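Hi support team,

I've been running sequence recovery on a batch of backbones for a student project. Most finish fine, but this one hangs at about 90% for roughly twenty minutes before it completes. I'm not sure whether the input is malformed or the queue is just slow. I've pasted the structure tokens below so you can try to reproduce it. Let me know if you need the job ID as well.

Thanks,
M.K.
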């Protein structure tokens, strides 16, 4: 239990607004619950959330110590009162989440803590009692792969250090197959094949460039593709990453003359379609182990797939 004395500068504030500033890691919904359950008391008695504080009052807070820490990236999960995750698969070692477009996987560019995919996954595991951050010295549930904010699809989270180590190595050794669905302008010719080239990343502009000749700082890139359907000048294409570079599919398809629908960075937005971000989804993940996978051996040969992809239903349903 912690006590917070109310001084002259705190007087006159509503109880809930004072708590929001004094204990910023305590979610608003949880605060209301604790007030109702008398785990937050004013002068030893129950108080309503809109009670105005007076100089000389004392708040008694019967809440976990971690809520009194300062907001940081490593405790952002505490700000998530109701974790929202679309789970494709989960066991004692891993969790596969279907990240929706518009959500970042990690905080960046001053993004508020508590909104990213990893925040929600950590909050979910914390609420389930599968992760006890106070008992861990270094490990926290972590993501093994990333997806751009406006790209949707399967993201892998490791629940323990051993699973994280194995998955990171398997990804490095290309023992996981990731397949994407995208909609492109035009009709790819040939209907299926492999796009190869060299990709150079301009960090300042946050974009990449594809060339057929290597240049300083460039890396090889290769994407297999297969046209599934064509309709009204658009094509539904399945892509498989052979290499995993930043914006690889978006840049390579655009360089080949088939920019993704809604991709204003590597193509042009078409006013005929109400879409302002890329029609790209990492919809299928397969584990193809060629070496020992330790505690994750049971995943070998398994494939996981999201149930629906919005733009497939909209344009080719």
């Amino acid at each position: 239990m912690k006590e917070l004395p109310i001084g002259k500068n705190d007087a006159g504030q509503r109880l809930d607004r004072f708590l929001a500033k004094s204990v910023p890691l305590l979610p608003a919904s949880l605060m209301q619950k604790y007030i109702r359950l008398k785990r937050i008391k004013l002068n030893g008695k129950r108080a309503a959330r809109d009670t105005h504080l007076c100089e000389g009052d004392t708040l008694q807070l019967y809440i976990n110590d971690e809520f009194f820490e300062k907001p940081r990236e490593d405790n952002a999960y505490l700000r998530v009162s109701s974790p929202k995750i679309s789970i494709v698969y989960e066991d004692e070692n891993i969790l596969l989440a279907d990240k929706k477009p518009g959500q970042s996987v990690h905080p960046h560019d001053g993004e508020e803590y508590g909104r990213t995919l990893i925040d929600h996954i950590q909050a979910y595991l914390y609420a389930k009692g599968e992760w006890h951050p106070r008992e861990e010295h270094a490990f926290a549930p972590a993501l093994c792969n990333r997806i751009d904010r406006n790209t949707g699809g399967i993201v892998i989270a490791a629940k323990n250090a051993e699973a994280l180590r194995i998955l990171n190595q398997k990804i490095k050794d290309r023992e996981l197959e990731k397949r994407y669905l995208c909609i492109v302008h035009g009709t790819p010719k040939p209907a299926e094949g492999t796009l190869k080239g060299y990709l150079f990343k301009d960090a300042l502009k946050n974009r990449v460039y594809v060339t057929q000749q290597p240049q300083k700082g460039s890396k090889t890139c290769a994407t297999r593709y297969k046209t599934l359907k064509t309709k009204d000048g658009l094509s539904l294409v399945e892509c498989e990453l052979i290499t995993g570079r930043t914006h690889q599919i978006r840049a390579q398809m655009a360089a080949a003359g088939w920019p993704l629908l809604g991709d204003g960075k590597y193509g042009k937005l078409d006013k005929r379609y109400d879409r302002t971000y890329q029609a790209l989804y990492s919809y299928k993940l397969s584990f193809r182990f060629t070496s020992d996978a330790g505690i994750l051996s049971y995943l070998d040969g398994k494939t996981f797939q999201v149930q629906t992809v919005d733009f497939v239903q909209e344009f080719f349903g």
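--
Follow-up from support: It reproduced on our side and the slowdown came from queue contention, not your input. Helices lie at 15-22, 28-36, 117-128, 161-172, 248-255, 310-316. No action needed from you.
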